[in-house]
């Protein structure tokens, strides 16, 4: 009874005290840019009293006038509000922009994102493309504005074409420079995608100029995963993927072919089904990290087995990487060591099997025993061959009878030393060596009609062997000096020296006329020992002298008031590849940027930066010795003949680029816009010269210029940002136009090939014209006697559609096209698009990525050759598209075969789930499973196998010939018959941390 009475007396007193302490109830709503924000901590400053907002962002707390309420939420700026007479306090939290202080690796150092005055984009592992990624370049596909990455068809053994801001040279140095953990000139083939932590792209000249002659096509800096001191951890990443043909060339079935008038050989064969498969790729990656005190390490092993959708194509690869770091001498000396080794065994298969699966007669049998024709069978390994028909081979026999193998090994190591002299001064030294060994072997049986010469009495069988050994050494030393004379002024000075040396040896041997097929391509070695004076043999070898580059460089970074940034660099570089009179070049760069928001103080704006950069880079000759006279042995081996004459004035190609950029950050919104113009001059080209002055009549000289103007836009927005639910979307858009300002070899090029189109060149190369224009006759939609009728473009009453190689089209340069050829399209897109969506809900994550290109066209080569109902080609299959006109029986290139190739594809979609693992678990720390689809669908009107742009062209190859030409960047837009077919892939993956 007493207790109850005591409670009745005390409770009112406590309420009274509480009312005195916290005299009123404060309510309100805490929001962000999208609405009510749950989970916000609301505390009375200086006390432990507090609460949290509910799911709608609402809160209620008792407080006195004069109390300060503190509102905190992860990822948002902390806000304070003083309690007044009002009982309601609403506010909106703005997000913290920690990304402005993100460290970005640049040439010979690092800086924060806000201090960069150049066009630079960093992509972290979290944003990489998911699923089956066999090459490191695929991680970036569609992720960086202005960076075009295309592997047309998706052959697992083919490196992607990488272009940054279009064409940077007409030579071979068209791919961006790769820098891996500070080692310049490294190979993406020697790093497994699983070992990469981030990739940074230096896009403009002011960023790349510090790399001199190797930075003209841009720079991709790769940072690998590193060890961490502490408990040793083991992680496993594994996946299994299934790939199938996404799209195929539309040809006729056997019955359709016969109904269309094709030659009936009695069978009904689906050739494409016989030479392709559902391909399986498996990936297994194990990594161990650990260390103690100031020492850490990481070692990984990667096993990758990748099958191509074409039978007998794919590779097995083993890669291992080791990284260790330690500090010595009272932590003044930091040592980093990296080593990696990659061994790949490839089965290249034969893309030609896909080509002939499309065009080979669908009524032909696989084996000669199933044919009524007596000349097929044993002489050709038992396979049926349509003898006497040009460019026609049994696709199954191509695969089954022949071999096309390769082995590649790469070893790289580097040691990096950083010594801190004082708090302001540090010295850095790097030594690295890369070794590459390559062997490719082909063998075509004595009974193979395809390249084996089974119908050639003078050559039975063919073996080809190519080997290459390449070695690259790098030594660099540089120092950094930081000083701050005032509170608002910071200086950082870098100066250094670089030495590079490369040499290689390669050997090519081809032999034939073998007694049997026992030794496959090893025949090329064994048989050649006895056949130097008989049979068929070809030998070629090259050994380079030491190719050296030495350089001196310096860079100054200045920051004023934490808002105005200045950058200047210069590199003085010399190369042994150049002429005696021009071995040295100078590559300067300047950049300035200002965060205008520091002074404008715009509401809800974290950053509004304007930057302007200018830089000069160069490009070296594609081969050694081009500045010197070149000779080759004559047929009697007793004398030499001159191929080209020396040019002591040969110098670098030079690229000068100006970039204007804008960066905007406001809470959840980030946007970047870059406008640029670049000028590439002094192309390195071999051309005809006066034979009276130069005995060979040929010399490598500088000549030609091109200019590119373009823009790049990147926008990223966090649409939803809740505790359990986030949704982010980002879009990148890029566009550029490249004009050939001067060139000494103008005219039409891009020969379509045989049969019947050998004098048909379809890409215009002309001064003052945009690169990549497709030219040809304009079909008027009517047919006469099996031939297309063309439009009389110039109205002179006659039709002139000469497309021979070198036809100038506008011979007098007055802007009026000669004859009746006209522009039918262009091979380079107007716009390229990447669109990313990332959703996370509790333990689930969903990533979807769309990629597209718009404004480009493609010459559909399959249609050019096999859509017309050509009588003499009656044993070829016909292409069966909506454009086909059965009245056309004479194959002739025209606008009919040029198609718009705009596309939007779901490039990648991945669904993942991360399991909740108890902290008491003895075995697992994290487990994540994922299901990924790649290239699942494409929206396009292009009738070919793949609408992606063809940025380069290697020319035509016909009737079992070999593809020997280099990639020509001036002839984009031709969809060749030897391209691999695109595939769609579904991948199941698991990541485990132990």
TrEMBL record:
Annotated signal peptide: none
Record's bilayer topology term: Multi-pass membrane protein
InterPro entries hit by this protein: Beta-barrel_TonB, Beta-barrel_TonB_sf, CarboxyPept-like_regulatory, Plug_dom, Plug_dom_sf, TonB-dep_OMP_SusC/RagA, TonB-dep_OMP_SusC/RagA_CS, TonB-dep_rcpt-like
Record domain TonB-dependent receptor-like beta-barrel: where: 376-936
Subcellular location: Cell outer membrane
Keywords of the record: Cell outer membrane, Membrane, TonB box, Transmembrane, Transmembrane beta strand, Transport
Superkingdom of the source species: Bacteria
Broad class of where this protein is predominantly found: membrane
Keyword Membrane carried by entry: yes
Cellular component terms (Gene Ontology): cell outer membrane
Domain TonB-dependent receptor plug per the UniProt entry, residue ranges: 113-219
UniProt similarity note: Belongs to the TonB-dependent receptor family.
Protein name: Iron complex outermembrane recepter protein
The organism of origin for this protein: Polaribacter dokdonensis DSW-5
């Amino acid at each position: 009874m007493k207790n109850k009475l005591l409670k009745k007396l005390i409770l009112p007193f406590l309420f009274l005290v509480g009312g005195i302490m916290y005299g009123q109830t404060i309510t309100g709503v805490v929001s962000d840019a999208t609405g009510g924000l749950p989970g916000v901590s609301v505390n009375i400053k200086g006390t432990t009293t507090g609460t949290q907002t509910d799911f709608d962002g609402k809160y209620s707390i008792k407080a006195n006038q004069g109390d300060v309420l503190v509102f905190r939420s992860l990822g948002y700026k902390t806000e304070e509000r003083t309690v007044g007479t009002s009982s309601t306090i609403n506010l909106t939290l703005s997000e913290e922009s920690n990304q402005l202080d993100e460290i970005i690796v640049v040439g010979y150092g690092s800086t924060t994102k806000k201090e960069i005055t150049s066009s630079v984009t960093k992509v972290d592992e979290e944003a990489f493309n998911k699923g089956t990624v066999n090459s490191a370049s695929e991680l970036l596909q569609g992720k960086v504005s202005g960076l075009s990455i295309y592997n047309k068809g998706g052959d697992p053994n083919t490196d992607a074409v990488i272009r940054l801001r279009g064409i940077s040279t007409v030579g071979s140095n068209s791919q961006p420079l790769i820098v891996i953990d500070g080692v310049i000139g490294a190979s993406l083939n020697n790093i497994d995608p699983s070992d990469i932590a981030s990739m940074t792209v230096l896009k403009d000249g002011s960023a790349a100029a510090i790399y001199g002659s190797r930075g003209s096509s841009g720079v991709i800096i790769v940072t690998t995963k590193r060890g961490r001191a502490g408990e040793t951890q083991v992680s496993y990443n594994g996946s299994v993927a299934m790939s199938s043909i996404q799209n195929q060339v539309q040809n006729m079935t056997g019955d359709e072919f016969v109904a269309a008038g094709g030659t009936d050989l009695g069978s009904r064969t689906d050739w494409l089904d016989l030479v392709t498969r559902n391909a399986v790729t498996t990936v297994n990656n194990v990594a161990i990290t650990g260390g103690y005190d100031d020492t850490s390490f990481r070692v990984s092993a990667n096993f990758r087995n990748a099958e191509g959708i074409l039978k007998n194509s794919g590779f097995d690869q083993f890669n291992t990487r080791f990284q260790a770091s330690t500090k010595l001498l009272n932590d003044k000396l930091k040592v980093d060591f990296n080593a990696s080794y990659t061994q790949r065994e490839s089965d290249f298969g034969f893309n030609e099997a896909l080509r002939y699966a499309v065009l080979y007669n669908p009524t032909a049998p696989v084996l000669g025993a199933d044919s009524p024709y007596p000349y097929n069978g044993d002489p050709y390994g038992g396979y049926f061959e349509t003898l006497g028909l040009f460019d026609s081979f049994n696709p199954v026999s191509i695969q089954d009878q022949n071999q096309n193998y390769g082995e590649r090994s790469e070893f790289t190591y580097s040691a990096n030393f950083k010594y801190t002299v004082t708090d302001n001064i540090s010295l850095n030294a790097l030594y690295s060596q890369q070794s590459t060994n390559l062997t490719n072997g082909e063998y075509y049986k004595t009974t193979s009609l395809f390249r084996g010469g089974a119908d050639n009495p003078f050559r039975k069988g063919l073996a080809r062997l190519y080997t290459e050994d390449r070695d690259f050494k790098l030594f660099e030393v540089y120092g950094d000096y930081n000083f701050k004379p005032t509170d608002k002024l910071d200086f950082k000075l870098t100066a250094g020296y670089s030495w590079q040396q490369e040499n290689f040896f390669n050997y090519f041997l081809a032999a034939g006329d073998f007694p049997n097929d026992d030794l496959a391509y090893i025949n090329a070695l064994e048989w050649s020992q006895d056949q130097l004076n008989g049979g068929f043999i070809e030998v070629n070898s090259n050994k380079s002298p030491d190719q050296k580059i030495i350089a001196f460089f310096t860079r100054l970074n200045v920051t004023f008031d934490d808002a105005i940034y200045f950058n200047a660099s210069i590199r003085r570089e010399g190369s042994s590849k150049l002429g005696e009179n021009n071995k040295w070049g100078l590559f300067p760069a300047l950049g300035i940027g200002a965060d205008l928001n520091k002074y404008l103080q715009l509401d809800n704006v974290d950053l509004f930066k304007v930057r302007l950069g200018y830089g000069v880079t160069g490009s070296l000759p594609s081969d050694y010795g081009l500045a010197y006279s070149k000779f080759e042995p004559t047929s009697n081996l007793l004398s030499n003949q001159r191929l080209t004459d020396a040019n002591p004035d040969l110098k670098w190609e030079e690229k000068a680029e100006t970039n204007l950029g804008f960066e905007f950050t406001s809470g959840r919104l980030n946007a970047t816009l870059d406008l640029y113009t670049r000028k590439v001059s002094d192309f390195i080209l071999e051309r005809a010269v006066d034979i009276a002055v130069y005995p060979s009549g040929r010399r490598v000289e500088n000549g030609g210029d091109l200019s590119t103007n373009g823009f790049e836009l990147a926008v990223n927005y966090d649409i939803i940002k809740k505790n359990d639910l986030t949704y982010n979307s980002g879009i990148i858009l890029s566009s550029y136009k490249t004009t050939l300002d001067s060139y000494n070899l103008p005219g039409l090029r891009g020969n379509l090939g045989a049969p019947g189109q050998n004098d048909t060149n379809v890409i215009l190369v002309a001064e003052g014209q945009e690169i990549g224009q497709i030219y040809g006759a304009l079909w008027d939609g009517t047919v006469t006697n099996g031939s297309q009728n063309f439009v009389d473009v110039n109205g002179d009453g006659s039709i002139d559609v000469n497309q021979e190689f070198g036809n100038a089209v506008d011979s007098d340069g007055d802007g009026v096209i000669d004859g009746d050829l006209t522009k039918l399209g262009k091979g380079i897109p107007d716009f390229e698009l990447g669109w990313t969506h990332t959703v996370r809900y509790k333990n689930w994550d969903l990533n979807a990525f769309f990629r597209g290109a718009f404004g480009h066209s493609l010459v559909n080569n399959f249609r050019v050759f096999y859509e017309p109902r050509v009588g003499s080609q009656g044993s070829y299959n016909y292409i069966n598209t909506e454009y086909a006109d059965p009245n056309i029986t004479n194959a002739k290139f025209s606008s009919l075969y040029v198609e718009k190739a705009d596309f939007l594809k779901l490039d990648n979609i991945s669904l993942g789930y991360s399991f909740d693992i108890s902290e008491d678990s003895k075995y697992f720390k994290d487990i994540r499973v994922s299901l990924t689809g790649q290239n699942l669908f494409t929206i396009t009107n292009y009738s070919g196998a793949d609408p992606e742009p063809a940025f380069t062209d290697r020319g035509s190859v016909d009737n079992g010939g070999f593809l020997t030409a280099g990639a020509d960047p001036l002839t984009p837009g031709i969809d060749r018959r030897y391209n691999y077919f695109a595939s769609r892939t579904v991948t199941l993956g698991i990541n485990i941390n132990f």
